[in-house]
Amino acid sequence: MNKFSILASILTLIFGFTFYGEKVELNILGTSYLVAAEVICFGLWLMFTLIFWSIRMKKFLSGNEA
């Protein structure tokens, strides 16, 4: 397991317990949305993880071309 996976797991646990039960109100184009804070934290974590994985996959695939 690489360092990024361990760090991401630890941060997810910390933020999950820190913001558990909190609500965030978002106003998008005049519409108000009430979202749980842990859902937003998980969404950000998932987005950064997918970006990280795609960069690693691109490096892996480009390294095997030659």
User: Proportion of β residues?
Assistant: 15-25%
The major β-sheet equals: 2 strands, antiparallel
Structural class: alpha+beta
Q: What distance separates the N and C termini?
A: 27 Å
Global shape: flat
Strands ordered across the widest β-sheet: 1-2
Unreliable stretches, pLDDT < 50, 5 or more residues?
none
Query: Using DSSP, what is the number of strands?
Result: 2
SS field, number of helical segments: 2
Provide structural commentary.
By secondary structure, this protein is of the alpha+beta class. The protein has one domain (3-61). It is built from two helices and two strands, in the order αββα. It has helices at 3-18, 37-63; strands at 23-28, 31-36. The protein has a two-stranded antiparallel ribbon with strand order 1-2. A hairpin with a 2-residue loop joins strand 1 and strand 2. The two termini are 27 Å apart. Keywords: Membrane, Transmembrane, Transmembrane helix. The chain crosses the membrane at residues 31-53.
Keywords:
66 residues; 65% helix; transmembrane; transmembrane helix; membrane
Summarize the structure.
The chain crosses the membrane at residues 31-53. By secondary structure, this protein is an alpha+beta fold.
